[in-house]
Design goal:
Blueprint (H helix, E strand, L loop, with lengths): L1 E5 L4 E4 L2 E4 L5 H12 L3 E5 L1 H6 L9 H11 L4 E5 L5 H14 L5 E4 L1 H5 L1 H7 L5 E3 L7 H7 L11 E5 L2 E4 L30 E4 L1 E2 L10 H5 L4 E2 L2 H15 L3 E5 L7 H11 L5 E6 L6 H9 L2 E9 L3 H6 L9 H10 L3 E8 L6 H17 L4 E7 L7 H6 L3 E2 L16 H7 L9 E2 L5 H14 L4 H9 L5 H13 L8 H12 L5 H12 L24 E4 L4 E7 L1 H9 L11 H5 L1 E8 L6 E6 L1 H9 L4 E2 H8 L5 H17 L2 E3 L9
Parallel strand pairs: 1-4, 1-5, 5-6, 6-7, 10-13, 13-14, 14-15, 15-16, 16-17
Antiparallel strand pairs: 2-3, 7-8, 8-9, 11-12, 18-19, 20-24, 20-25, 21-22, 22-23
Helix pairs in contact: 3-4, 9-10, 10-11, 11-13, 14-19, 20-21
């Protein structure tokens, strides 16, 4: 059989905009290896590749376009996987598949469908069957029985018949992961995606019982880790095939079994690979971290979840927060970076709980500059969790898109999501002790503050006794006292700063400068012209200011001030000279084409006036008249040199010939 597997359309909202995590789906490439072992043919289709490459726009046409791509592979069976945050995309793609090819079997797997198998099949006829849990032991016998639809005795299947939806008993877990064939990465365009790191499954299962997490509901509570021999053999194969030496070992809790981690470190050290992993802070110690650092570990993801001891107990994370500081310090000493992740928006969370989380983040910004990344996520209700069982009657919907939730693309997406809180629970929220708007604003402000440099973050916190909660609490109070505060978090922070610090404060300039340099919208628009504007020239080639460029008028000497702050270890003692505090000018920010660097150009008042004029597309004769030169003879030569120089710098871009409005 020819089986087409379709990956999630998974995106993440980051401080710099939406991000697509281009990596092979580990579950699907494991199933592709099982398929090949069973004599079948497999294809992997990743919608993220199509959108991130620009081959498919992320608009109303996307779901149908993906379905056409799937059908172009001429599959006998389609296997789809989904998370709750993007289940709408999975359901819509499957509906287009069924419309175009009604007899094509469409199978569904993954955590969301495994937990909500019955309601999914009852409400979405485009899916024929759900494969629950780990599918490696189920897939081949399922394909053998698919044409006859005789599933008696086959475990882990939920299927539809003329008599309704039927559920067979759960399939067993894969007890020994070493018995599975190595995941088949050959179906993913590693080179095309430009990957310098590959994700590798290190194990499955979680023995803990956090009330907000559904990992154990899918992978079971039995902790399983591949042997050091097996894991190193997989890394060797990937290195030999793709030349990659940096790997992300995927397991929520890699270090639960310290003895096995030591075995892996001993085996991997001579190979010279570098790698990352995830761990609980109470499942590492200084000795183990030192061994991991020497074995090539470069970064560890720690799920802290809350800075409140009370909330640690409430959500059954039960992490001893006294481990936070020494664990981060031990991670740094071992030569590794750390990621500390937090969540806010729990239904039981009070203002004091939230402030404790914010202050732990703020302390980390001050203590661990350069070696720590922090995250603050808005809580997402998850199916199969104790928290949902407790607070199901407090679910509400406001349409807010956070973190991983896919925005609405088709006209009915929002209504479907709003009206089905069981299937689309990830898009809803819990009514909680604190107002919903506070949680949304706090996480939005956090993302905005993350767009500032670490030196500016520390310098800013120094004005609030090094307390992130004091800053955000005062900002929330300020916003609440104004009848119409800006809804955009970046604009809100700047309006607050202008009022609280004063329009002449260099800190406000730094905030303006860094937010402009990290603007996630820059480059996303097609231009700045007003289509209704009357034009005097017809059919003229146009030039305009690049939509990726940003002008900052009358602002402090931010590059020089940033140099001062970076050279001062203690932000509260940073002295910005009176000369720097007085110096102001105009800047043009131009992001690089390849990396995230931003070129900073100092521009004169005349240049500001010209570039302001060019925010609207202009023809060459219009530009000539604006700057007062003749577009002939020596004047034409001067004008040509000027425009060519601005084009070469990337300040301007060429436009299409434009006809006068109304023609």
């Amino acid at each position: 059989m020819r089986v087409a597997f379709v990956d999630n359309l998974l995106l993440e909202q980051r401080p710099d905009g939406y991000h697509f995590d281009l990596q092979p789906h580990l579950g699907l490439i494991s199933l592709l290896a099982v398929l090949q072992q069973g004599g079948h043919q497999g294809t992997l289709i990743d919608p993220k590749l199509e959108v991130s490459s620009g081959r498919m726009p992320m608009d109303v046409s996307l779901y149908e376009n993906i379905a056409e791509l799937v059908l172009a592979s001429q599959p006998d069976v389609v296997g789809m996987t989904s998370l709750g945050c993007n289940f709408m995309a999975t359901a819509k793609i499957a509906a287009h598949l069924k419309h175009r090819s009604p007899e094509l079997p469409v199978l569904l797997g993954g955590p969301h469908a495994s937990i909500l198998d019955l309601p999914v099949l009852q409400r979405f006829p485009q899916f024929d069957l759900v494969v629950r849990g780990e599918a490696e032991l189920t897939l081949l016998p399922l394909l053998d029985r698919l044409s006859s639809r005789r599933f008696s005795g086959l475990r882990g299947i939920t299927h539809r018949s003329a008599h309704g939806v039927h559920r067979t008993p759960d399939a067993p877990l894969v007890s020994d992961l070493d018995t599975l064939p190595p995941a088949d990465y050959s179906h993913y365009p590693v080179a095309e995606a430009g990957l310098s790191l590959l994700r590798v499954e290190a194990g499955r299962g979680c023995p803990f019982a956090c009330t907000f997490c559904s990992t154990a509901s899918f992978f079971g509570r039995r902790y399983r880790l591949k042997s050091a021999e097996q894991l190193c053999a997989e890394l060797d194969r990937l290195h030999e095939t793709y030349g990659i030496s940096h790997f992300a070992l995927t397991h929520d809790l890699f270090t639960v079994n310290k003895a096995k981690v030591r075995e892996f470190c001993e085996a991997v050290t001579p190979r010279g690979y570098t790698w990352t992993c995830s761990a609980r802070m109470d499942c590492v110690d200084s000795e183990l971290l030192g061994i991991m650092g020497q074995a090539g570990c470069r970064s560890i993801y720690y799920g802290v979840e809350t800075g409140s001891p009370r909330m640690q107990k409430e959500v059954a994370k039960r992490l001893d927060l006294s481990l936070f500081r020494p664990t981060l310090e031990a991670t740094r000493r071992a030569g590794m970076e750390a990621i500390a992740s937090f969540i806010t928006g729990y239904p039981q969370e009070t203002a004091e709980d939230q402030e404790m989380t914010l202050d732990l983040i703020g302390e980390a910004w001050n203590r661990h500059a350069g070696t720590l990344t922090t995250q603050l996520h808005l809580l997402t209700p998850e199916p199969g969790t104790e928290l949902l069982d407790q607070y199901r009657d407090q679910l509400e919907y406001d349409g807010h898109i956070s973190d991983f939730n896919l925005p609405a693309l088709e006209a009915d997406d929002a209504n479907i999501t709003r009206n089905d809180s069981e299937i689309f629970v990830n898009h809803h929220y819990y009514r909680s002790v604190l107002p919903r708007q506070r949680h949304v604003l706090v996480t939005s402000l956090y993302r905005t503050l993350c767009r500032l440099s670490r030196d500016v973050q520390r310098h800013l916190l120094a004005r609030y006794d090094n307390s992130l909660s004091a800053l955000i609490t005062d900002l929330l109070s300020w916003a609440g006292a104004h009848t119409d505060p800006p809804s955009d978090a970046a604009e809100l922070l700047q309006a607050y700063g202008a009022d609280r610090w004063g329009a002449e404060d260099y800190l406000l300039s730094l905030v303006r400068y860094l937010l402009a340099a990290s603007d996630p919208v820059r480059g996303a628009c097609g231009g700045r012209a007003d289509p209704s504007e009357s034009r005097t020239d017809t059919a003229q080639p146009l030039m305009q200011l690049s939509p990726r460029a940003t002008m900052l008028r009358d602002i402090h000497a931010c590059p020089e001030i940033l140099d001062v702050l970076s050279a001062t270890p203690a932000p509260e003692t940073a002295e910005v000279s009176a000369e720097l505090r007085a110096r102001r000018g105009h800047y043009l920010l131009l992001p690089g084409d390849v990396d995230l660097t931003v070129r900073n150009l100092t521009i004169s008042g005349d240049s500001v006036r010209l570039l302001t004029f060019l925010e609207t597309p202009r023809s060459r004769p219009e530009i000539a008249r604006h700057i007062g030169v003749e577009d002939s003879g020596s004047g034409a030569e001067v004008l040509g040199e000027l425009l060519d120089h601005l084009l070469d710098l990337g300040v301007l871009r060429r436009g299409e010939p434009h006809l006068t409005a109304g023609v």
